[in-house]
Amino acid sequence: HNHEVGPQSRKPVTELSLHSLVDMGFTDSQSEQIYEATSNLRGGSAARHALSTLTALFVLGLNPSTVLRLLEKCPELYTINESQLQQRIGNMRKLGLVEGSLQRVVSYYPQILTVPVKTVKSVVLFLREKCQFTVQQVTDILRDSPTVVLEKRGQLEYKFQYAYFRMGVKQAWMVKSRYFRFSLDEVRCRHCFLERRGLYQTPDKKGQTLIINPKLDDIFNVDEDGFLTHVANASAEEFEVFGKLLAREWQEEQHQHGSVEAD
Amino acid sequence: EKWAVTRTKHPPTSLALQHFDATHSVQLGPLWPSVRAALLSEKKYGALLNNFSYDVVLADLEAQGCRDFLRDADTEVSAAQPFLEQESEVVGDEESSGVSISKKSGIDGQQLSPLHLSPHIKCLVFPRGDITRFKPARPDMCGLLGYYLMDAASLLPCLALDVQEGHNVLDLCAAPGGKTLALLQTQSIGYLCVNDASVSRTLRLRKVLNSYVPKPLLADEKLRITSFDGTIWGDIERNTFDRVLIDVPCTTDRHSLMEDDNNIFSKSRTGERRKLPQLQLELLMAGIEATCPSGEILYSTCTLSQIQNQSVVEQAIVLARENHGIQLQVVDLRPLTHMFRKTFHFAPDLHLGEMVIPHLAANFGPIYMCKLRRLT
Ligand SMILES: C[S@@+](CC[C@H](N)C(=O)[O-])C[C@H]1O[C@@H](n2cnc3c(N)ncnc32)[C@H](O)[C@@H]1O
After folding, report:
1. CATH classification of B13-374 is 3.40.50.2000, yes or no?
2. Residue A42: its pLDDT value, please?
3. Domain assignment of residue A188, yes or no
């Protein structure tokens, strides 16, 4: 068998068999793996959906081993029906994710294909209208931080407001630093740590601070070591204890908030 | 909306922070960011064990992971401090033995008497980096509580005071009574005078003592509680006490950064705050006068401010000599800080006294202390 055969040279396959998988370019053992995974799926349509999913992924230009990795990471992909899948891919293209970026997004975050078009549209609307990102910025966010589509709305809103109001960061910088990639916990922990050390200040109404704040990129786009040595100037021990203390502070804050709202 | 909450423009806590950013950063230099983060985060407590309680809580607390920091002391003499002469005498079991350190010759060739740590004082803390909280203490069958929760670092002034059998002791600014309670735990005080200018705070102190100390030990022949202005003490009882603790009112840095209520940085209290160093000096002077010759004085605060700490002591030493003819000697507390360096972070290179600085992994303090001995 020639496993290097590209999707273009494949004969149309109508049923999912070991043979057809090998024909698509999977190795024998890969084929067996996929075959087994699909036969474990319940419902008669499963095999048909699996087939269309595989085809769609190949059409995006992904190679067999990437496709296998994605399916392992996100087995739900096997069960999406073909027209929905096409709509979702089409919608993302419309949002500006053209070939290269779409391929990248899907291989980084295959779950995006399980998200209904409606959901994606409402996230986009939220980013455009509530957060005032431009069309291009929204495309960039979807490309760099596709997980936003599945984040809880409250959480996403809080994260935006945190950067905008609490850290005084404008939209362009959020996009540039791929801000939405980081979890709210990470964001708050690093920011509050700097703030309590006196190394970060919320700008006033005129956008002014008494000190020069470090760039968002330098705070978040570094590993913990880099963050501690170059930005916070602190020991790992301090940061570790701080993380524990802050987690407890939030927990208690939420608790208080909850009980106030319940009253 | 979440963020549009209108906050007071300048709450006292932010005024305090601005003030400390200006002063403490100069004083502590590169240490300030670390101290600042600790001050703005939850502090750690120590549980001062109550020897008078029937309940044995020690084992229970130890099972939760705490340890008595006094028994966990560093008895090794470090190479960096070769001038320290230490002798640990172990007599019988741990209960009956105190650890004593004597410093044979200090800097400037001063002769220093041994510092004796009472074996009765036990204070439990959770290990470094552990943020577990203590549960509130429960009353035993007599209604006495098993432990008192306090900043473990504020025990150090009590230890440094070095109360010995039968001593006549004055606690000049005592409320709410944490240090008084620690002093009473030594069970070696002959007579204790407890004072605080605030009547309401003195009431609180009474309540604390009643919740921890059996009635007979609070009897008139053992203890006196008053609410005088401490600055006049030199006129009331001169040359009287073997040991005097002067734990003065100060900017209480931690409280001022965390609580807007009752905050000394509120606009309406600016005058009071500005007058603190003067009040502190007057209280220290009164305490010095109340001490008998060869008696010892311990000055302490819970601020990092040099103006309220070292400067006050410096002025007092000069004033005592010039206005009252009293010669004072500064007692080196390095044996003590060396011993507890595993539990606390101490400010390096203070030219006068010692200071516990807060650190996230050991979030005690700030506590400043300076010990003086009356030579005349
Ligand atoms: C830092 S607190 C003492 C804490 C106490 N030593 C403890 O460990 O619980 C300072 C106390 O000084 C008292 N005070 C203020 N001015 C005073 C004065 N002129 N004379 C005596 N006490 C005074 C305050 O009421 C306050 O209770």
Report:
1. no
2. 59
3. yes
Structural domain includes residue A8:
yes
Task: Find out whether A78 and A114 touch, Cβ atoms under 8 Å.
Answer: no
Q: What is the mean pLDDT of chain A?
A: 87
Q: Which of residues A35, A63, A80 is at a domain's end?
A: A80
Give the angle subtended at the CA of A234 by the CAs of A233 and A235, to the nearest 5°: 140
**Helix spans in B9-116 (H):** 12-28, 32-39, 58-63
Domain that holds residue A39: 1-80
Question: Is B174 a pocket residue for ligand 1 (Cβ < 6 Å)?
Answer: yes
Q: Hey, where are the domains in chain B?
A: 13-374
B26-77 pLDDT per residue, tens: 999 999 999 999 999 999 999 999 999 988 899 999 999 999 999 887 665 5
Q: Has residue A158 been placed in a domain?
A: no
Structural domain count of chain A: 2
Cis peptide before A75 (omega within 30 of 0): no
Of A5-9, A66-70, A85-89, B14-18, the least confident: A5-9
Write the ipTM.
Answer: 0.88
For residues B371 and B296, the answer to whether their CB atoms sit within 8 Å is yes
Instruction: Give the pLDDT confidence of B337-354 residue by residue, as tens digits.
Output: 999 999 999 999 899 999
Out of B66, B173, B302, B370, which one is annotated catalytic?
Answer: B302
Q: Nearest-CA residue of chain A relative to B360?
A: A238
B51 CB-near residues (< 8 Å, 6+ apart): B120, B122, B185, B187
> What is the CB neighbour count within 10 angstroms for residue B204?
14
pLDDT exceeds 90 at position A220: yes
- The number of residues making up chain A comes to 263
Last residue of a domain, one of A37, A58, A80: A80
Q: Is the CB of B229 under 6 A from ligand 1?
A: yes
Strand partners, B168: B191
Number of continuous H segments (helices) and E segments (strands) in chain A:
14, 0
Does B94 reach chain A within 8 Å, measured CB to CB? no
Query: What token pair was written down for B375?
Result: 């030579």
In-domain check, residue A96? no
